[in-house]
């Protein structure tokens, strides 16, 4: 009987999660180490390096904006009902499209 057979299902699932976390951590560490080695070589030969994902080692990552988006559509009878046009459309928009065929009558100009 091996050691894994002695563990309960709950213990195995916990172990699986810990192993996955450790694998991710080690991959990140190895990637960072490889990038540093590449940068050192590039620097020695005067080369510019940009890694996949678009971020160069010398550039700071741009923070993702979290601003709100202005509504693009407004219900003609109830101005409190709006939709930005992003994501799943609200029920009132689906009903409007079914009845009128397009969103022309509710577009904010």
Poorly predicted regions are none
Strand content: under 5%
**How far apart, in Å, are the first and last alpha carbons?**
72 Å
Helix proportion of residues, in percent?
Answer: 40-55%
Radius of gyration: 27 Å
Q: State the major sheet.
A: 2 strands, antiparallel
Give, in spatial order, the strands making up the sheet with the most strands: 1-2
Shape: flat
Quaternary state reads single chain
Core attributes:
two-stranded antiparallel ribbon, single chain, 109 residues, flat, 4% strand, mainly alpha
Question: Can you describe what's shown?
Answer:
The chain has 2 domains: 7-59; 73-106. It is mainly α. A two-stranded antiparallel ribbon has the order 1-2. Helix content is 43%, strand content 4%. It has helices spanning 9-45, 91-100; strands at 73-74, 82-83.
Spell out the blueprint of helices and strands.
Blueprint: H1 9-45, E1 73-74, E2 82-83, H2 91-100
Antiparallel strand pairs: 1-2
Question: What is this structure, in a nutshell?
Answer:
This protein is mainly alpha-helical and 109 residues long.
């Amino acid at each position: 009987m091996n050691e894994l057979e002695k563990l309960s299902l709950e213990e195995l699932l916990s172990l699986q999660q810990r192993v996955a976390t450790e694998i991710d951590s080690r991959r990140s560490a190895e990637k960072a180490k490889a990038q540093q080695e590449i940068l050192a070589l590039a620097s020695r030969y005067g080369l510019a390096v940009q890694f996949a994902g678009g971020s160069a080692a010398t550039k700071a990552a741009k923070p993702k904006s979290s601003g709100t988006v202005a509504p693009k559509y407004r219900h003609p009878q109830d101005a409190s009902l709006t939709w930005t046009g992003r994501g799943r459309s609200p029920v009132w928009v689906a009903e409007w499209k079914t009845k009128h065929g397009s969103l022309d009558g509710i577009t904010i100009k």
